[in-house]
Design goal:
single chain; alpha/beta; Purple Acid Phosphatase, chain A, domain 2; 2 domains; 7-stranded mixed β-sheet; 6-stranded mixed β-sheet; 21 strands
Length: 508
């Protein structure tokens, strides 16, 4: 049995094949497209085993009923671009009953004709209704792919991106394993044994599938380099005091599983000795958890100006130390640290020409003296976002500006962002990590200079101590050198709740 669907609908497909997972947020347009495809083109999108064609008619009827429920949602819900989880759960209840009855699932991820052929052959395999194969129509390889609230099974498939093409297998109990395409025959042999109880000479049970997948669940031969990205701590605020305990608890485990920790500014809320001391203690704790490896830290506008806006005060930034270029031989990365708040006005940022020249000179000297550094991954750290964007008005300042017809971007922008783009192009730096807007964000943009162009990846972190009522946030970034891929996960805790992965993004 098989189901073909658009890549944008993958998380919806994963949800309706699971009884245990809570509904995610989805884009309304994607949900409409998904229901329309199953309602009126079911023969194109579903593959049934021989003798089971009636299943297609059942799915079409249930999909039309789901579309009716969505259309009859309250007007306040219909106007939203994102379908709330509660609405999604109600709309897809019937489809979930139909699709979540299989003991075993397989999701094809990656690209290439060999994967498509293998997926269709697997879907046609006579497993007596025990296997459902999910087959995306399009490929992830040609563009950045981002998913809201990725469900555990789909998240695991995304995090296996460097091993694509292949299949993620999972069961209702949560057992799962990613298998490279080249290893498909081997696991199928093991699953057939489980299906027919070859090992125990009895009929197979769902737990036999679980045992087989657990044997395959250990990652094989991956060489990830992991970064924990924090930002906008704002020590000295009431939110920082209330939220530090839950962040510290989370980091006590996470820090030991990453290669390096970076913090992209707004370490404290305003230049103040006591606030700088609070951050210093936090930094020492991360250093201890990292086995003596200090986090790489850059300043933000709040670290240098009163409440991030007025005057200039570098005394407390000097207390935490100044880093310009950090070479990490363990994870083979070079971190280039910009101070985008050195000259900007109010909360705006600006990188001076002298800073560009100084960092360029130091970077060239390093790579000339150590030729092996040309093989390291260079990453630029900057507090202000390199690509402008608006966010939903949530803070008092944002709401006041909106009341007068203004967005906050004009007051927060990096005024010479294009100069940063060009500097990165010149030195072949393709990744920029930033903070500032308290909003996690993954963006890939094509930038141009004269007849040359380059693709830059900018990854922003939210507020790691929940400033101004935002979620407590951190990013986990995985880089795999062989495939040249980023896999970025954004995690949030709201009102003291457990951290959950709210966005997963895979680079081309």
């Amino acid at each position: 049995m098989g189901a073909i669907f658009k890549l944008e609908h993958a998380n919806i497909m994963t949800y309706i094949t699971s009884r245990a997972d809570s509904p995610p947020r989805v884009v309304r347009q994607h949900l409409n497209e998904f229901l329309e495809a199953l309602s009126y083109q079911v023969n194109r999108y579903l593959i049934s085993e021989r003798g089971n064609a009636f299943w297609l008619d059942d799915i079409a009827n249930v999909a039309r009923e789901a579309a009716r429920r969505l259309h009859e949602s309250p007007a306040s819900v219909r106007e939203q671009t994102i379908v709330p989880p509660s609405t999604l759960g109600r709309v897809l209840e019937g489809l979930r009953e139909e699709f979540s009855s299989f003991p075993l699932y397989a999701l094809a991820v990656g690209s290439g004709p060999a994967l498509k052929i293998a997926a269709r052959e697997l879907a046609s395999e006579q497993m007596r209704g025990q296997l459902l194969v999910l087959i995306p129509e399009s490929n992830i390889s040609e563009r950045n792919f981002e998913v809201l609230d990725p469900l555990p099974a789909f998240s695991k498939a995304l995090h296996a991106a460097p091993d694509w093409p292949g299949f993620l297998f999972w069961t209702q109990s949560g057992a799962s394993a990613f298998v490279k395409l080249e290893d498909l025959d081997e696991i199928l042999h093991a699953l057939r044994d489980a299906r027919y109880g070859a090992r125990s000479r009895r009929p197979g049970t769902p737990s036999d599938f679980d045992n087989t997948l657990r044997e395959w669940s250990t990652p094989r031969g991956r060489n990830y380099r992991r970064i924990l990205h924090l930002s906008d701590l704002h020590f000295g605020t009431e939110e920082a005091i209330e939220n530090q305990a839950i962040l510290d608890s989370e980091l006590s485990e996470i820090v030991q599983r990453v290669d390096r920790v970076v913090i992209t500014g707004d370490l404290f809320d305003t230049p103040n000795k006591n606030y700088a001391t609070l951050f210093g203690n936090f930094k020492q704790n991360i250093t201890r958890l990292s086995g003596g490896r200090e986090p790489i830290v850059i300043p933000g506008n709040h670290d240098q100006r009163m409440i991030g806006v007025f005057g200039e005060n570098y005394k407390h930034v000097a207390m935490i130390g100044s880093q310009k270029i950090v070479v990490d031989d363990q994870c083979k990365m070079i971190f280039i640290c910009f101070n985008s708040s050195e000259k900007g006005s109010f909360a705006r940022g600006r990188i001076t020409k002298s800073q560009f020249r100084q960092l360029g000179g130091e970077y060239r000297t390093l790579t000339a003296s150590r030729p092996e550094l040309k093989e390291y991954l260079p990453i630029a750290l900057v507090h202000h976002h390199p690509f402008s964007f608006e966010v939903q008005a949530e803070t008092l300042v944002q709401k006041a500006l909106k009341a007068f017809g203004f967005g906050d971007e004009a007051f927060l922008v990096l005024t010479n962002a294009e100069d940063l783009h060009h500097w990165c192009m010149d030195w072949n730096v393709k990744t920029i990590l930033h903070g500032h807007k308290h909003k996690a964000r993954y963006v890939e943009r094509e930038v141009k200079r004269d007849s040359h162009s380059a693709r830059l990846t900018a990854i922003g972190c939210g507020s790691s101590l929940g400033a101004e009522g935002s979620p407590v946030s951190y990013n986990l970034l995985e880089w795999e050198p062989a495939s040249q891929r980023w896999v970025a996960s954004f995690f949030e805790s709201i009102n003291g709740g457990a951290f959950r992965e709210t966005v997963a993004a895979v680079s081309p």
